[in-house]
Amino acid sequence: MYKVADCKIVDLPKIHNEAGNITVLQNGKDIPFEVKRIYYLYDIPMGSERGGHGHYELQQYIIAASGSFTFILDDGNNTKEVFLNDPSKALHILPGIWREIKNFSSGSICLVMASQIYSEKDYIRNYDDYLNYIK
Fold it and tell me: What InterPro entries does the entry give (predicted)?
């Protein structure tokens, strides 16, 4: 089982010139898993929270494509808050970690690259069920 300490901020490649920055991510080179799904959260009302679940197998790279937000990671024993506000950095979340997202700034966009296509069977949506799973 992974711990919150295993979930790290990753510096992404950034190419800079006078016209602005670009970050390019490629499967097998910049991401430690094959990306099979991409989605993003946006237009989140102020004060709203998202997440509130864990995954059995799924890995994710999370990027603040715009604005900022905070991830709260929980492994049943430890928690860690990760503030994201830089599109040249990604949070790598490993399987078996409970996550919640809060403190969305106005206009924020949370970009998620996932290691699997959507499967409801991979979700743990109840925290008590999550605690039973990690035991």
Answer: QdtA_cupin_dom, RmlC-like_jellyroll, RmlC_Cupin_sf
The boundaries of the domain holding residue 120 are: 4-134
| Calpha distance 65→67 (Å, rounded) | 7
Give the predicted TM-score (pTM) of the model. Answer: 0.94
From the list 108, 78, 109, 71, the residue with the least C-alpha distance to 92 is: 71
**Residues, the chain:** 135
Tens digits of residue pLDDT in 6-23: 999 999 999 999 999 999
Tens digit of each residue's pLDDT (9 = 90 or more) over 37-84 = 999 999 999 899 999 999 999 999 999 999 999 999 999 999 999 999
CB atoms within 10 A of CB 107: 11
Domain at 99, CATH number: 2.60.120.10
Task: Give me the number of domains the chain comprises.
Answer: 1
Q: What is the DSSP letter of 44?
A: P
Are 65 and 87 in contact by the 8 Å Cβ rule? The answer is yes
